[in-house]
Structures are given as C-alpha cells and as structure tokens.
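User: Please predict the structure of the protein below. I'd like the answer in structure-token form so I can feed it into my own downstream comparison script.

Assistant: Understood. Taking the following sequence of 213 residues as input:
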Amino acid sequence: MKKLIIILALVLSSSLLFAQRGTVDTDIFGNLQFKTIDGQYKASLEKNIFDDLVFTDSRKNKLHYEKKYLDKMEPGLRGDKEAQARMLRRLVRENNRHSGYTATFKIDIFDKMIIEDNKGYKLEESKDIFGNTNIQEQVGGTKSVFKRNMRGVLEYKEGEKTASLGQDIFDRWLYKDSFGNEIQFGKETWKRVLEQYGTDEKFFWELLDRWFY
C-alpha cells in the first residue's frame, strides 16, 4: 500500500511539473494557448461562435464545454481570463498523458446536465417536479441511479445492488442496503447528523462511500 501511494504521488507530481514547464499566451483571436518549453506538447482553450469553450491539444484530446453548462456550473468563467488560464493548466495536467480522449459537457433543453465521453462514461443529472435531484451514471456497462422516490426515501442502485435512506412508519431514519447493512438513527442522532452534513442527501453519499463501495 505504501509503495502504491509513493507511485501515485510521483505520477501526480510529474503531472504538476509538466503543466508548470510551459507557458500560457493569448493569440490574436483572444484564445488561450499552452506550449511546453520544448515545444513538443501544445494545447488551447478556445471560444467558438456559440460562446462554448473547447479544449484541444496536440495529442488529439478534445473537451467541449457548452455555454449553458459553463454558466450554470462555472458562473463568471467565460468572462474571466485568469480563471480560464487556470482551467487550461488543469486540463493540460489531466490530459497530457493520454490521447484521443473526447468529452462533452452540456445542459439540454430540459435543464438536464449531461457529461459524456468516448470511453463509455455518461452522467445525467436533473431535478424532478418537486426539485429533487436525480442522477444516472454509466461507467462501461454498469449503470447507477440516485433518486428520491414519491415517499421521500433516497434510493441508490448500481447494477443489482441497492441502498436506501428514509423514515420508517415510526419516523425513525433508517439506512439499509443489499449487503445486509441496516443502521437506524434516533431523533437526537439524526439532529446531529443534519447539523454536521446539512442535508440527508449529503449524509446518504457518506453512507454509500462507507458501506456500499
């Protein structure tokens, strides 16, 4: 385990060093251009005619951020060159070690956020008519769904595995999953949970991280 941590640290530091060993300039069209000191790797963050931001590099990676997505998820970014420069350096760090990767980030006409790439990944996030968050994620051939049902119970499903968090008929909060875990929270404990996590959704994600994966 310690050896793995050291290797990961070396990879991360190498990526950070890679991004630092280059310059970011603005071309005559106002687009940001990155180039390593040796000139062997180049990348750009350009605005198209629809005011989307598109990252491309010399390794044929392309990430397309649509205007509506940026305005919702990164408000103010499109008008902030310094923030865009930081974004460009981050994308360089994340993408300089592979090639041929493409992804799109958008909000559709129903206000659903969609992130999709050419490696079999897709994320869809939307709100139902009651304002509750619904998330569908697909990684390879495995699909996961996060939602709140009509009874107000939070549900998560990944393949055939399931988990839920909600109140029972006695108004006690109960987490249970298909692994046989079942945790009950009394009123005072639940009050402290909300004080710490703010919402039941955030706490549900914590429980999933701890017991589901």
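That's the full token string. The first strand starts at residue 22 and ends at 26.
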